[in-house]
Specification:
With 190 residues, the protein is an alpha/beta fold. It has five helices and eight strands. The chain has two domains: 70 residues, ATPase, nucleotide binding domain (Nucleotidyltransferase, domain 5, 2-Layer Sandwich), CATH 3.30.420.40; 89 residues, Nucleotidyltransferase, domain 5 (2-Layer Sandwich). The strands form two sheets. Strands 3, 4, 5, 6, 7 and 8 form a six-stranded mixed beta sheet that branches. Strands 1-2 form a two-stranded parallel sheet. Strand 3 and strand 4 form a beta hairpin. Helix 3 crosses helix 5. The chain starts with a helix and ends in a 24-residue tail after the last helix.
Length: 190
């Protein structure tokens, strides 16, 4: 929080804008860094309520999937969960957009893809060693997407948020909650 608000002020100054010109907010709701997600969601909710602004919460995996509009389904997106674990989300195409299919799965690089029956595109937060091991183990079933496209980009969050704001697919600030996976959750193949 100590760094976030001054950075928001700096960003507005960089684009020669004021808070009065902001007409909606989008925030990543996770999964991801517990503290980062919690602080970001709390700040967005507070600003939305204080300024009476519409608010949209966007899953971190949706942001990563958005970068891969050119990929054919199916797609699996992974984010780091700490302690060598990954959070995986499966995506399918729906009316030209990626839609998450099923729940988040807590997994590892060693287990991911064990149950895939078809060629699957994989993107997200993987180390070079994990990419190499997965590529070797699942050579016939995985398409590892380029690392440059596997970064979370604020522009993708902004675009998803803009689309949802225009479609009036809004979240209630009082009800919006970060997505956390329990540290005790069982690790499984994804």
């Amino acid at each position: 929080t100590v760094e976030l608000v001054p950075r928001i002020v700096d960003l507005l100054q960089q684009i020669d804008a004021t808070i009065d010109q902001v007409d909606g907010l989008a925030v990543s709701i996770g999964p991801g860094s517990f503290t980062g997600v919690r602080v970001g969601v709390a700040a967005a909710k507070g600003l939305a309520v204080a300024r009476d602004l519409p608010l949209v919460g966007v899953r971190t995996t949706d942001i990563l999937a958005y970068a891969h509009q050119w990929v054919k389904a199916p797609l699996v997106v992974v984010v780091r969960a700490g302690r060598g674990r990954l959070i995986a989300a499966h995506y399918v195409r729906s009316r030209g957009d990626w839609k998450q299919d099923g729940d988040f799965v807590l997994t590892t690089a060693e287990l991911i893809g064990a149950e895939w029956n078809t060629s699957t595109a994989l993107c997200g937060e993987l180390t070079a060693d994990e990419r190499a091991a997965i590529g070797q183990r699942l050579a016939d079933r995985v398409r590892l997407l380029p690392p440059a496209f596997n970064l979370r980009r604020a522009g993708y969050l902004a675009e998803i948020g803009r689309q949802r704001l225009l479609a009036r697919q809004l979240d209630d600030p009082a009800a919006l909650q970060p997505i956390y996976l329990s540290p005790a959750q069982q690790v499984a193949s994804a």
